[in-house]
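mind reviewing these tokens:
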Amino acid sequence: MTLPDKIAIGADHAGFELKEQLKAYLEGLNIEIHDYGTHSPESVDYPDFAHPVANAIENNTFRFGILICGTANGIAMAANKHQGIRAAIAWKSEIAKMARSHNDANIICLPARFIDEEEAIQCVHTFFTTDFEGGRHERRVDKISC
């Protein structure tokens, strides 16, 4: 799988700096980024950014997204309320790979307080270049939606 040509991204205040770093990296690869915010390090609520990114994927404007908050837990929980969204928390590239290959995740959620820029870039790159294996995993993924 090759890197997607466009990605939705969002973060709360805790993830703002890492979001900006990832945007610069991805834009350097000529990937179109739609930034759903936040646009400053001032305190905000993570669902306000998780929902627009999840909506954009849910309505097929984007195939993939990146969400970032302090632990990635809250932003993943909010995104996973949407049908068809499989938001996975990753802090190591091996986890990002399994999220794609076994779970067909379409949003990677990064814990800004527990990951540095280099590891985040590795996670994102691995996530977006890993194919879903299908097979036995497809049956399991189909059971996620109610």
